[in-house]
């Protein structure tokens, strides 16, 4: 995908959706604050990419590795006018758990990564090799070997115990009630007052609790749910216009704008990548 601004992206997705990869160069593109249901491991090839994650600002320069846990809210943009080029792979938690179980020959706990940016040439080299194999059409056996090596090295060299403080019990309850309401009917046009009533608090208390628990506003979270639903429909082959109408977006262009801001590729590029598998 090229958009005429110097930005481009190439995307790959496995048949089951448990593994995704993207190679991209962004100068003007700005990621809206979002999260993934997956682990996301990236390596910056050129330039500097800046983002906020877990309440702090970070910059990944050439050769550095990015590590996001599932549901880690973050944004992203070029740190300067020259832009940045990076490779990133997204791995479903079940896939990671299965790889770790194979390595340890027993059921393994899911890892957590404390540092969103790592300066580790070994991890960078492993990620580049895995990424090149995925986008380059390497044989399945080779891909699986590189996947095992990459996940194993990420866990050995970078996984840590969680350091994020737990939200107070009352705050967590408010956020969970609101989250359940949004998950129960993500296409509903829910006013703030109604969501606050479902959570049992004021609108201000709801926003503060939700932001603390999930790292984003309720409206951003709802949009993310709709975009994830759109991804599933696109992967099943649904026409983009129908997907837009079926997931709460005004039209195809509205879906496309937000899809790019969250995932870095257009709905059409995502759909084609899945169809080519």
TrEMBL record:
Q: Which PROSITE patterns match?
A: HTH_ARAC_FAMILY_1 (PS00041), HTH_ARAC_FAMILY_2 (PS01124)
Q: Where is the HTH araC/xylS-type domain?
A: 176-273
InterPro entries reported in the protein's UniProt record: AraC-bd, AraC_XylS_family_regulators, Homeodomain-like_sf, HTH-like, HTH_AraC, HTH_AraC-typ_CS
Please give the SUPFAM superfamilies that the UniProt record associates with this protein. Homeodomain-like, Regulatory protein AraC
Tell me the keywords, alphabetical order. Activator, DNA-binding, Transcription, Transcription regulation
Q: Which Pfam families match?
A: AraC_binding, HTH_18
PANTHER family in the record, alphabetically?
Answer: HTH-TYPE TRANSCRIPTIONAL ACTIVATOR RHAS-RELATED, TRANSCRIPTIONAL REGULATORY PROTEIN
The protein here is known as: AraC family transcriptional regulator
Give the species this sequence originates from: Actinomadura yumaensis
């Amino acid at each position: 995908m090229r958009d005429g601004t110097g930005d481009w992206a190439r995307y790959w997705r496995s048949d089951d959706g448990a593994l995704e990869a993207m190679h991209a160069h962004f100068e003007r593109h700005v990621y809206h604050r979002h999260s993934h249901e997956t682990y996301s491991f990236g390596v910056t090839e050129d330039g500097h990419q800046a983002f906020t994650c877990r309440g702090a600002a970070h910059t990944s320069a050439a050769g550095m590795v990015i590590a996001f846990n599932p549901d880690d809210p973050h944004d992203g943009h070029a740190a300067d006018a020259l832009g940045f080029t990076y490779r990133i792979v997204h791995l479903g938690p079940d896939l990671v758990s299965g790889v770790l179980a194979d390595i340890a020959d027993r059921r393994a706990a899911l890892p957590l990564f404390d540092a969103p940016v790592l300066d580790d040439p070994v991890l960078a080299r492993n990620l580049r090799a895995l990424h090149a194999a995925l986008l380059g059409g390497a044989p399945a056996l080779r891909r699986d070997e590189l996947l095992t090596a990459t996940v194993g090295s990420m866990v050995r060299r970078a996984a840590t115990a969680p350091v994020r403080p737990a939200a107070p019990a009352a705050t967590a309850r408010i956020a969970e009630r609101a989250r359940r309401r949004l998950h129960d009917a993500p296409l509903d046009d829910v006013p703030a007052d109604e969501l606050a009533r479902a959570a049992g608090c004021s609108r201000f208390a709801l926003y503060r609790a939700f932001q603390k628990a999930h790292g984003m506003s309720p409206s951003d979270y709802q949009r993310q749910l709709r975009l994830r639903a759109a991804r599933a429909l696109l992967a099943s082959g649904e026409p983009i216009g129908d997907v837009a109408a079926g997931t709460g977006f005004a039209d195809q262009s509205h879906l496309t704008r937000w899809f790019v801001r969250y995932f870095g590729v257009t709905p059409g590029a995502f759909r084609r990548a899945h169809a080519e598998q």
